[in-house]
Amino acid sequence: MHLNRRIFVQLAIFAVIAVIAGSVMVFGYMKLPATWFDVGHYEVTVQLPTAGGLYATGNVTYRGTEVGRVENVRLTDTGGVEAVLSLRSDVAIPSDLEAEVHSQSAIGEQYVALLPRSSGGPPLKNGDVIPLKDTKVPPDINSLLDATNRGLQAIPRDNLKTVIDESYTAIGGLGPEISRFVKGSTALAIDARANLDPLTTLIDQSQPILDTQSETSDALKAWAANLATITHQLQTKDAALAGFLDQGGAAANEARELIDRLQPTLPVLLANLVSVGDVALTYQTALEQLLVLLPQGTAGMQAGVIANMNSKQDYKGAFLDFNLNVNLPQPCTTGFLPVQQQRPANFEDYPDRPAGDVYCRIPQDSTITAVRGARNYPCLTVPGKRAPTVKMCESNEQFVPLNDGNNWKGDPNATLSGQDVPQLPPGTPPAQSAPPPAVAPPAGPPPPIASAEYDPATGTYLGPDGHVYTQNNLAQTNPNNQTWQTMLLPPDGN
Asked: Cα dihedral sign for 141, 146, 147, 152?
């Protein structure tokens, strides 16, 4: 038989393909070198209390990945069981671990799961032994089935039938939904397996979070108890809650329409409320004190009004006692305009208010008069400081009195401090006095005076405007039987 060159080339290519395919099957799929000669593997012995259904050639997993097989399962002289595991050398498995026997399905297929307790420590090596205290096996399936059978027999058959019927009623006809649930769970499991390393890292590092939950268990219990109270209140007030939900939409619509009608003025009102809110926030402590004293003050007023209620007295009203004390205590004139600049009470004009602040400017600790004057206003924004104005409260300026408060006769502003009267705001430069003129100006009319002498014989006196007036009821010729009514009547003269 004659073979040409082309046939030789085809046979050579077929031989190469056959050798490659056989090598892949022997080394990749069948793994005969590892099976026959343990190439790339090492052995570890696991001590078990019972076999737990484990058999040779069973799988060994580490973090859900197959890393070897069970080589042999044998009895020991002490009545236990040893399982010899053949593990891959290319996977470093920590020696600090637990070995558990699990069942992959309901019909068996046991495998060994290696569960590390920490990522540190030396890795397993050939000849290592996992002791009995670090291993677990599943319960005997026969004992489990027997216990389940006894449990079902303990349940009354009528009740068991009711449970089965109700279960059918609950899940009957939900095949598509259950199918979607199973498919979703399968997809979740596939994604979890694809992200196995992040999940295992999350599980390993979840201990601090779990410890935090354990340490705050009391707070969680209190939160759960409060939540139970709220839900109980919602349950008991179900009718009111239903009414609120039913009528809430209509009420919200009415509120919206009201806001639309008030839209031109509502922003201005809210802006003003913001200003009022800022002031109320600043004076919060004073408002709280006012609210604290208001009931006691109301009670005191009521005590004065109803003291003679249901009594035999003819007078019905408040018990008041008017005591006329002249200059006790004496009035405070320090810090106010001098007498020469004060306007008489009978003037009807309204001149501009002088620049600056006018208030009693005697020492703050003076007990002579005006104890509750403006100089003793407490600064709410600066605790411990007292000042007559907000600007002085919020500045570094301190209150300086004009005098000791005893000089209330004559010029009350006689002082060496150089302060202005009225007091100018902080930072305002004092008024500079004009230089004296070279020639004295001509004398003008005398300034108005606050007091006047009268002639007791005729009842005439000089008014602040320089005119002469006559008060007939002050003359000696006037009858002496003056009454309080005649004192209120206007004079009959000029």
From this structure: positive
